[in-house]
Amino acid sequence: MFEGKLVRIRAVEQSDVANAWEWVNNPEITRFLSMSGQLISRTSETELMERLSLGDDPFNRVFSIETLTGDYIGSCGLHSIDPINRHAELGIVIGKPEYLGKGYGSDAMQVLLRTAFHVLNLNKVYLMVISGNTRAIRSYQKCGFKEVVRYPHHCYIDGEWYDDLVMELLRLEWEAERGQA
Amino acid sequence: MYTGKKVRFRALDVSDLDNRMQWSRDREVMRFLVGGELPFSRAAEEAFIREAVSQHAKGNKYYTVETLDGEYIGAAGFSDIQHVNRRATIGLVIGRRDMHGQGYGTDTVRLLLHTAFHVYNLEKVTLKVFSNNHPAIACYRKCGFREVGRMKQHRFIDGEWHDEICMEINRSEWELSQEEGKQRR
C-alpha cells in the first residue's frame, strides 16, 4: 500500500532527527520551501520529530520517505486535511541531494497520492510551489497537477521576488492519469 | 481605533461575545465562512475570542467593526501577515444581516486596505472568497481586487460543491484607485 517502485513512506520516527538534521539547514534544499531563510536549531528539530512520531494529529499526516532498501531520503505529508471539503495540502522534500533528479520524488508523490485518495478517501489534493522551483513543478505536472492560481511577486527569497503557484489534482483526474499509464 | 467613512475598527474583545453569537447562529451569514459548517457553543466562541485576543503578535489581527455611532456590525481582520513578503490576507463578515447592501462591507474592505498599506506598510493584500458569494465578489472587484485563480470543488456547502476564488491587490493599484477617486470628486 505504502510502497512504490523506488521508495516507501513510513511513520516518522524519533531517530529521523539525525537524517533530517542533514538537510534542514541546507539552503540548496530548503531554498524554495516554506521554511526558506530560517535556521533550525537541533533542539527544535528534535522536538518536531518527537511530536510528529506520535502521529496523533488527524489533520496533518507526515511521513518519512525511504528507499526500498531502508535509507532515509526525505519527508512528505498531507496537511490541513479537511474532512468536510475532503481536500488536503501536499508537501514533499527529498533531503538527500544524491537522490534528486532520479525519479525518487515522483515515485514518493505517487505513493502519497495513493494514500490521499485510496486510504484517506479525499476528493482533491492541492499544493503550493514557488515559481523558481522548476524541478518540483515539472514533477507535479508529470503527476497530473494543474496550475490553478498564480500570485505574482509573492515570495522574497535571497534577494529576488518569485511567483507563488497553487496546483491541484482531483481524484478523478488522478485516476484517469493512472489508467493511461 | 481606525476610522473609515461609514465604519471604524476597534480591537476584538470578550465583550463582543453576545453580538458574535447572534450572527454565528445565522445560517445565511455562516454559510460563506470557513469553519462555519457546524454550530458551535457560546463557550467555544468565548475560547476562540480569548485565543484570538492573545494572538496579536502572531501574524493575525482581529478587529470588531462598528458604525461611526458605535453600533456593532461585524468582524474584520488580517491573517498570515508576512513582513518579509510584505503581504497579508484579509477576512471580514458583516454579521448584522439587516445592514447588508448599504456599503458597510465596502467601507470595511477599504479601511482594511488603508490599514494594510498605510499602517503595516505592506505591498500586497490577498483574500479568498467562495464562488457562490456573489455580493462579496462584487464588493472586492469594486475595491480593486483582481482574480488570480480559482480552486475547484474547494467548498462543500449545503450539498453542493463550490470553487474558491483567490484575489489580490497591490499597493500601487490601490494608490492609483485612490487618485482616481479623488479626481472623480
Structural key phrases:
heterodimer; A: 181 residues; alpha+beta; 7-stranded mixed beta sheet; 7 strands; B: 185 residues; 6 helices; 35% helix
Share of helix among residues of chain B?
A: 25-40%
Distance between the termini of chain B: 26 Å
User: How big a fraction of the residues of chain B is strand?
Assistant: 25-35%
Count of runs of 4 or more consecutive helical residues of chain A: 6
Mean pLDDT of chain A, to the nearest integer, reads 95
Poorly predicted residue ranges of chain A = none
What's the quick description here?
The complex is a heterodimer of chains A (181) and B (185). With 181 residues, chain A is α+β, with helices and mostly antiparallel strands.
Structure description:
- Chain A has 181 residues and is α+β, with helices and mostly antiparallel strands.
- Chain A has helices at 17-24, 27-30, 42-54, 104-119, 134-143, 171-180; strands at 7-11, 61-67, 72-82, 87-94, 124-130, 146-157, 160-170.
- In chain A, a hairpin with a 4-residue loop joins strand 2 (61-67) and strand 3 (72-82).
- In chain A, helix 4 packs across helix 5 (134-143).
- The radius of gyration of chain A is 16 Å and the shape is globular.
- The relative contact order of chain A is 0.16.
- The model of chain A has no long low-confidence stretch (mean pLDDT 95).
- Chain B has 185 residues and is α+β, with helices and mostly antiparallel strands.
- Chain B is built from 6 helices and 8 strands; from the N terminus they run E-E-H-H-H-E-E-E-H-E-H-E-E-H.
- Chain B has an 8-stranded mixed β-sheet with strand order 1-2-3-4-5-6-8-7, with helices on both faces.
- The longest helix of chain B is centred in the middle third of the chain and has 16 residues, at 104-119.
- Chain B is globular and about 45 Å long.
- The two termini of chain B are 26 Å apart.
- The chains are: A alpha+beta (181), B alpha+beta (185).
- Chain A binds chain B through residues 37, 84-87, 123-124, 126, 147-156, 166, 168, 170, and chain B through 37, 84-87, 124, 126, 148-156, 166, 168.
